[in-house]
Amino acid sequence: MFALLVRLMDGLNVYPENMKKYLGLNHGMWNSQSVLLALIRKGLAREEAYKLVQDAAMKTWEVKHGGRDDANFVEQLKADPAIAKHFLAGELEKLCSLESHFKEVKNRFKKLGLT
To answer: How far apart are CA 96 and CA 28, in angstroms?
Structure first.
């Protein structure tokens, strides 16, 4: 399996700008799991947290497909009092930032001997 992985990765081309572009196309909804887990850590039942996050994602999706250009998952989360009350100012933005998702990448590469 490792040999197959090496062969697959050997010719891999990575285009960071394209990656950012495609992440932007879903207006931040790729952060839904991070927000769900944060709400659970803050004491909400999983079902309640899931419903809140799903509703915010669906509202973001509706804005996106309603022909508007202002769809933004984080802003939708902040606009929902049932969600916003669980987060300090700036906490949702930090939680949903690329930096937050990449913070352990170097450590993981190091553990795999890839640095």
So the answer is: 8
Q: For 15-61, what is each residue's pLDDT tens digit?
A: 989 988 888 888 899 999 999 999 999 999 999 999 999 999 999 99
- Name the packing angle between helices 32-41 and 46-65 (round to 10°): 150
Report pTM: 0.79
Cα 18 from Cα 34, distance rounded (Å): 22
Name the 3-class secondary structure at 72.
coil
